[in-house]
Structure prediction request, 171 residues.
Amino acid sequence: MLQACRWSTSPLLYPIVVLAIATGMRKGEIVMLRWPQINFERALITLQLTKNDELRSVPLTGRAFDLLKTLSKGKRSDTDLVFPSNSGEKPLEIAKAWTTAVKKAGVADFRFHDLRHTAASYLAQGGATGLDIAAVLGHKTLAMVKRYAHLSESRVRQVVTDMNQRTLGDR
Prediction:
């Protein structure tokens, strides 16, 4: 999927998708992102307009940080949007580029919002707690985390095995 986005005729699709996976941000939060919301010194994105109307800070690291830092060097003077349309007045529309990338990647029934689920699942598989995931995604309840963080049977088995090894000395 990432390779198909990298090869897209829309040069901003790849950084948008990487940002979605790296942060769990919603599509609207990403395309409406403005340069003043990004603090490169603190490696932090501040979201004022979230779905639940609460301020949320999102850590910015790794490839997503590097891509945004590179984009900042060529930012346009006519807009403060990070991902502007050609006119600069509105955010970039990525629907067509996204649909093309999904087809080229051969992924069936995959929506942009599924990247948010992907981020939550990667966080869970990496050992993040439900509270950690809720904080990253801006969820108010752990029930929402459960809807987003899809753990494989093998991951759940590994978590239980690890716990048994630590507490009961199992092998």
Summary: Residues 153-168 form the longest helix (16 residues).
